[in-house]
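ugh ok so i messed up the first submission bc i forgot one of the chains. this is the corrected input, ALL of the components this time, i swear. 827 residues overall. if the numbers dont match what u have on ur side tell me asap before i send this to the collaborators (the ones from the other lab, u know who)
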Amino acid sequence: MKRVHLYVLASALTAAALALFLYKAIVFGFPLRPEERTDVWRVEVQIQFEAEGGAAKAEIYLPVRTGAYTVVDQSFVSPGYGITTERDPGRGMRAVYSVREAKGMQTLYYRAVVQRGREAGTAERDPQPPVSPPEYKDRDAEQAAAQSIVAAVLKQSADPATLAALVVKRLKDAKPGDEASLLLGREPGNLRLVSTAVELLQVGGVPARMVNGLVLVPERRDAQFLRWLEFFANGRWHPYYPAEPTADALRYYLPWWRGPSAFIQLSGGTALNHKISTSRSYELAIHTALTRQRELEKKLVEFSLFGLPLQAQALFRTLLVIPIGVLLLVLLRNVVGIKTFGTFMPVLIALAFRQTGLAWGLLFFTVVVALGLSVRFYLERLKLLLVPRLASVVIVVILLLAMLSVLSFRLGFERGLSIGLFPIVILTMTIERMTVVWEERGAGEALQQALGSAAVGALCHLVMNLRLVEHFAFVFPELLLVLLAVTLLLGRYTGYRLSELRRFRVLAR
Amino acid sequence: MDFLNVAARLRANGVVGINERNAEYTLPYNPRDRYPLVDDKALTKELAVRAGAAVPELYGVIEIQRQVRGLPELLKKHWDFVVKPARGSQGDGIIVITGRSRSLYRAADGSLFDDEEMGFHVSNIISGIYSLGGQTDKALIEYRVNFDPVFEAITYRGVPDVRIIVFLGVPVMAMVRLPTRLSGGKANLHQGAIGAGVDMAMGTTLTAVWKTAIVSEHPDTGNPVSGVRIPGWDALLELGARSFELTGLGYQGIDIVLDRDKGPMILELNARPGLAIQLANRAGLKPRLQAVLRHRGELHSIAERVAFAKKHFAAVSV
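and heres the new structure output, hopefully the right one now
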């Protein structure tokens, strides 16, 4: 009866966990492997200016129509400022930071998280834009030069795409004194080249505009905007990159806003400067997978671990692997039959090993236990009562550890610092148990159990520290229900322990 | 592959492992609320006395630290005695004092204790270092059994005792636990004592187990351990059968000592008796436990249960 109950419970838990797991993996698209991460970037714009004392207003463009990328999250950090966003038709979206009174150095931030989508571009058609030929104010020479270039290029081109390519080529090949260099002016650069090409395309009757964007580079502190152009053909805007980047490099182009306007417009301040940094963000990969879900799913996700602040998430990353260590401990104790001090002490040790690394962890464990034992054996002579004796061991061991830490740091072993992470109090109880076993059953048995504890701790550490294990525990915590089911079943495991096969082997006639 | 083979053969011989003992016998048949009766040896003693079973006389109980000061006064009256934790497990923390040497106490293993050391040991006991969960404990000071000379030839110091596993009031398996030099005079198999199986029908000893090996002679005295007949075997079986009514625990171990003058006495009861008894008897517990379950309905009186044990669990001559 109890067995049936247990089996039903275990299979219900497993079924529920697997269902949720599969739903999350298949429908939500949660990554199954820690390496399987989509490109997620964090772009941060820092704007600084000297406010003059009155009202101040700074307008910046926000990334829209970002091509293969999707803006999955954005935030504005601007103490005291009001933020509004407004559309700037044909160019993009603008955010307006405004404050009634500001004096001194002002720092505003804009942060965006962008992710490369699975499919590039959309199928919808863009509305036909008007062609607005540039006005060459009373400058017959420029007008004539432009028309002459366009006329020449139009003859060679077959469609808007080749026209754009030829125009850019013509401008790039400009020789001093010819028509192209007249148009480019005295300071030809990326900006001037693109704006001239846009003008020429318009003269040629093709709607075109300038695109301002970033090239995403990991850990870039001062990213600069880059310009390229877009022309309209067949109901869609098509980009053309004068720098002719490779397809690989193109993956990292993030379009931001259109048109020749400056990125920031400021009123009420001076000494404006801005800094843009880009960084690749791994932790956010899962988070962004979440933000693309529908509303209901979003709610579900908000009430999961991902709804927690990052710091709490880090804590749960550690907590959620404990069940795996605990299950391993159950296996080792009840199926293999290894003897350890304290039921869950090895798991706590394994947690400490996460910080120290395995080799150093084992060394520290040995040092702590050896020190504790020697203190304990010395205190034995004083015939102290149990609790004060335990307390004394804790105090002395902590002091010794502090000294060891300082010493090892001085000697250049930085790992020595993490010795303080050991669960000293738990270890002290272990030391006490160990002395009892030492006295009652001999040193051999005590050392054997201590060795068993360390070995189990090391094994737990190795399993708990697998990236895959941590990833699964954190991204799919429902799988812990499967662990629970297995643990429940192990609770009714009535077979022999491996150690018993040895113990009873004389009975195996 | 070898272990699968071993496991299969152990299973065929009905050897019960710890997991099986816990899951199939102690958990279902031992009600949780009865555990305190056996976990606290002072309570067990009280219970046994009320039921009319003989126990070693209790000289004194030390429950709080302050009483430790009165310890020398209490011990002065007794030439020999045993100090043990009320909640100890596996024989830890037991000191058997066999006599005095000037002002010192002489323990069974030959070591000497002064008053201060004895007090320290007692305060360790009451602060709980030998108790199961580390809870505070009591120290019992009791009569040291003058054991029956029947086991003299196969005992190295200390007190031998008879352990009987009782399942639902039926004694199913028994062994004599004989102290060795290694066990320091203690009758605990974990500590190196040897255990000799007992023929349930006749009460004669069979071969013995020492650690995990089968031995036929006592390792210290060299005398053969088998063929010793336990005097008053029926009385022991009856004491075992009666322990079920005493505690209400379906699966328990009862430790009985044979006193030269006072006869069999209950030393302690154990709700989680060890499994080494199978090694001592070179037989698995499971067939016997299942036999009891099959005939459960027919076994009511103590006499019926003892008769059942003698009839069904006699040693098969190997």
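quick check: Chain A has four domains: 1-37+285-321+477-496, 40-116, 140-258, 341-464. that seems consistent at least. The longest strand of chain A covers residues 103-116.
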